[in-house]
C-alpha cells in the first residue's frame, strides 16, 4: 500500500464556538489489492487512531464537553442526502472518568433510559480490549454507547445504526480502533466550555444588523395581521394518529424561521426569467425550500416517522441560512430545550446546538445554531418575533442552515430531549418580509407576491416544493 500524504492536521485552538479550523490528522492510504481507498484518522488529544473509508468526513468537537473527541460521517447510503452525510460514530476521551467508574455509569444509563428497554452486552474493541455496550438509546438514529478502558484512560464511543444494536459498520469501527497515550492535553486546545459557547453573541457588526432587522420585522408584523392566535383542538388530529403523520391542523401557527439577515446567497435575490429563477445582487433574506436536499417530503436524510424511541423527522426541512442570521421559532409557545447535551448520550449529536418550543401537544425544533439568544432558557415564552438564536452549522460537517420541524405528541427523555410522536407537514407558512416569488402562470395561479393574504393582512406561503425560493 502507498501513502498519499497528510490531508488534515491535528486539532487546534478554537475561537468562540466556531468549529476548529484543524481536524484530527488523516493519512490517505490506498488499499490497492481491494481497490478501496482508506484513510487513517489519528487524534493526538484523544489518543486513538483508526482506518476508515477514504470518503468519510471527520468532525472534531467544536466546544468543550465533559468528554473530548471527534465524529465520523459517511456520505452516500440510504440515510444521507439531507446533509450529504450520515453519522457513523463519535470517538471521545472521557477525561473526567476513571476505569473503576465505568460499571456505575453503565448502570446509571440503563436506569435513566429504562423506558427504551436498553440492552447491555460486551464487545471486543481494538486489539483485544473488552468494552461494555448499551444499545437502544434514543437519538436521531438508533444509538449505542460503548465504554472501554485502556490502562488508566476511559473512552466513550457512540455509534449510530439503521436498527438498534451494533451492525457490521459499527463493529468495523470498534475493531479498527488503536489506543495510545495522548501527546496533547485537552486543556491545551483552549476550547470554549459548552455552557459559555451556548450563549455566545454574534460579532458586534452582525448583531447591529440583526437588531435592525428584528425591529423592522416587529413593525411589519403589526401592520400585517399582528401576532397569531393559537386555537388547535385535539380532535383536529386524533383520527390520523395511526398514520404517524398528518397535515397542519387549522389554528396551528407555523412560520418561516429567518429574516433578511439571512445572506446565505451572498445578498442575491431571485428574478423570474419566464422559465426559472435567476439570481441578481442586492436583496438578502431569501432561502430555498428543502435546501441541502433535506426535505419536508421525506426524501434523503429526514426519513423517520413511525419510530417510538427516536426523533421522527420525516417532514423536517433544512433552510440554508447565513451564519449568525436571526432565527425565530417555527411556532409560538414555551421553550423546553435550549442548548447541547452530552451528559451521557450523544444520540442527538447531529442537531448540534438547538432549541425546542412546545405549544400544547406540538413541539418545534430549530437546530444547528451557532449560539442561542440571551434569555432563551427552559420555561421562556416565545412569540412570533422572538429571536431564539443564530444560524450555524453545529452538529456535523455541513454548510450553515436551520433545521426546522414540528411534531405532535412527542415524549421526553429524563433530561428533556424529545422522541416519538407523529410528524406534521405544513399546509401554510406565515411570512413577514416575503416578496414576489411567484409570478403566476397562464392559468392564473399565483398572485405575483405571495400565496395567500388573509383578512387581517397576514401573508402566507401555501405551496412548497424542492428548491422554491422563499423570503422570510
Automatic annotation (TrEMBL):
Annotated ranges, domain M23ase beta-sheet core: 317-408
A Pfam family assignment: Peptidase_M23
Gene3D superfamilies membership: Glucose Permease (Domain IIA) (2.70.70.10)
InterPro entries (alphabetical): Cell_wall_metabolism_enzyme (IPR050570), Dup_hybrid_motif (IPR011055), M23ase_b-sheet_dom (IPR016047)
PANTHER family associated with the record: MUREIN HYDROLASE ACTIVATOR ENVC, PEPTIDASE-RELATED
Name listed for the protein in its UniProt record: Peptidase M23-like protein
Organism: Archangium gephyra
Amino acid at each position: 500500500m502507498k501513502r498519499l500524504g497528510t490531508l488534515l492536521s491535528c486539532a487546534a485552538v478554537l475561537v468562540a464556538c466556531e468549529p476548529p479550523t484543524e481536524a484530527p490528522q488523516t493519512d490517505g492510504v490506498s488499499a490497492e489489492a481491494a481497490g478501496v481507498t482508506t484513510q487513517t484518522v489519528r487524534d493526538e488529544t484523544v489518543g486513538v487512531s483508526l482506518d476508515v473509508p477514504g470518503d468519510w468526513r471527520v468532525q472534531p468537537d467544536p466546544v468543550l464537553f465533559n468528554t473530548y473527541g471527534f465524529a465520523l460521517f459517511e456520505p452516500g447510503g440510504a440515510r444521507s442526502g439531507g446533509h450529504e452525510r450520515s453519522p457513523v460514530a463519535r470517538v471521545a476521551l472521557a477525561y473526567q472518568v476513571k476505569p473503576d467508574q465505568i460499571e456505575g455509569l453503565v448502570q446509571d444509563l440503563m436506569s435513566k433510559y429504562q423506558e427504551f428497554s436498553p440492552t447491555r452486552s460486551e464487545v471486543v474493541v481494538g486489539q483485544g480490549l473488552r468494552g461494555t455496550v448499551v444499545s437502544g438509546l434514543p437519538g436521531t438514529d438508533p444509538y449505542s454507547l460503548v465504554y472501554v478502558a485502556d490502562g488508566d484512560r476511559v473512552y466513550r464511543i457512540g455509534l449510530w445504526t439503521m436498527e438498534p444494536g451494533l451492525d457490521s459498520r459499527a463493529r468495523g469501527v470498534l475493531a479498527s480502533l488503536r489506543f495510545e497515550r495522548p501527546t496533547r492535553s485537552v486543556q491545551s486546545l483552549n476550547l470554549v466550555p459548552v455552557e459559555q459557547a451556548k450563549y455566545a453573541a454574534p460579532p458586534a457588526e452582525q448583531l447591529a444588523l440583526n437588531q435592525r432587522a428584528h425591529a423592522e420585522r416587529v413593525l411589519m408584523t403589526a401592520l400585517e395581521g399582528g401576532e397569531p392566535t393559537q386555537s388547535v383542538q385535539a380532535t383536529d388530529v386524533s383520527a390520523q394518529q395511526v398514520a404517524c403523520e398528518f397535515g397542519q391542523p387549522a389554528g396551528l401557527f407555523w412560520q418561516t424561521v429567518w429574516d433578511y439577515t439571512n445572506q446565505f446567497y451572498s445578498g442575491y435575490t431571485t428574478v423570474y426569467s419566464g422559465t426559472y429563477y435567476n439570481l441578481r445582487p442586492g436583496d438578502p433574506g431569501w432561502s430555498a425550500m428543502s435546501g441541502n436536499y433535506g426535505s419536508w417530503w421525506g426524501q434523503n436524510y429526514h426519513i423517520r416517522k413511525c419510530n417510538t424511541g427516536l426523533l421522527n423527522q420525516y417532514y423536517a426541512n433544512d433552510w440554508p441560512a447565513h451564519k449568525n442570521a436571526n432565527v425565530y421559532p417555527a411556532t409560538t409557545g414555551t421553550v423546553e430545550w435550549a442548548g447541547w447535551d452530552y451528559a451521557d448520550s450523544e444520540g442527538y449529536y447531529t442537531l448540534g446546538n438547538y432549541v425546542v418550543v412546545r405549544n400544547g401537544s406540538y413541539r418545534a425544533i430549530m437546530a444547528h445554531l451557532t449560539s442561542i439568544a440571551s434569555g432563551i432558557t427552559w420555561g421562556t415564552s416565545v412569540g412570533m418575533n422572538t429571536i431564539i438564536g443564530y444560524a450555524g452549522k453545529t452538529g456535523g460537517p455541513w454548510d450553515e442552515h436551520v433545521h426546522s420541524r414540528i411534531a405532535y405528541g412527542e415524549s421526553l427523555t429524563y433530561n428533556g430531549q424529545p422522541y416519538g410522536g407523529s410528524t406534521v407537514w405544513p399546509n401554510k407558512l406565515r411570512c413577514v418580509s416575503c416578496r414576489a416569488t411567484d409570478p403566476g402562470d397562464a392559468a392564473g395561479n399565483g398572485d405575483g407576491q405571495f400565496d395567500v393574504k388573509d383578512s387581517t393582512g397576514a401573508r402566507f406561503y401555501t405551496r412548497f416544493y424542492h428548491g422554491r425560493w422563499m423570503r422570510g
